[in-house]
Amino acid sequence: MQKLLIVGCGDVAWRALPKLLQRFRVYALLRDPEQVPRWRKAGALPLLGDLDNRASLNRLAGLADCVLHLAPPPDRGTRDTRTHKLLAALGRGKSLPQRLIYISTSGVYGDCQGAMIDETRAPNPETARAVRRLDAERQLRAFGRRNKVLVGILRAPGIYASDRLPVERLQKGTPALAAADDVYTNHIHADDLAAACCAALQHARPNRAYNVSDDSQLQMGEYFDCVADTFGLSRPQRLARTEAERVLPPMQLSFMRESRRLSNRRLKEELQLRLAYPRVEEGIAAALKERNKECS
Predict the structure, then answer these.
(1) What structural domains and CATH numbers belong to the chain?
(2) Which runs of consecutive H residues, i.e. helices, occur in 29-105?
(3) Which of 19, 73, 127, 219 is 20 to 30 A distant from 111 in Cα terms?
């Protein structure tokens, strides 16, 4: 059985774990010692290490046949120093991984003014976090070419699940953009992103990027309206962009400055993924059922 190293053991990795254990002996790189029992009980082999501490990564050299890299970059700067340290650690081994799959962001495309785009679109990141993600992609691609390691890039948009919905935002009455000023936004359910990770480990092509997005083509306000209607909340007030820029915080505004629609043809044809939640409406309805079940 091949060995798989998961780097970035958050929600998506946890959702992917049961399926990964069917094919791999799974090692989980954990920064928090308190998470060790949970991952061990689930069937993974925990390793303590921190991507911000180069010395803590020495055990990774030559460890795994495959790597699933889900860790985010640091929250400052233009470089992903964490990916740099990870690749340095992997490169010190006598044997290198055969496959490395990385979750990036569709934010690397920047603002496309609502156009439908595929993975051939030239990256043009406009936020600092997207710049760091693109830096990670470039480091990984170079590592793959240099060492003949198959590198696959999964570019994910907004990830949602039952506990990752803008319910609190709606309860606070935070406004959205008026339809005339609104932007197109893209989404993927966390379960489908986890499934895409598993599919990419099996089917991804060398140095290939994949848009991991569902089939929806919604404006951001329509997404908020759908969540509000499903959860019995008031729809958000709509504001013109000039007014929104006056009253909304910069972080929220940053998500309202980019508009694009993602083609997921490669995801379906090359990774052979069948989405569990092809449309946002289906995923949000499932999230409500899950919440109601948890509360009953």
Answers:
(1) 2-160+187-214+261-278 (3.40.50.720)
(2) 36-42, 81-91
(3) 73
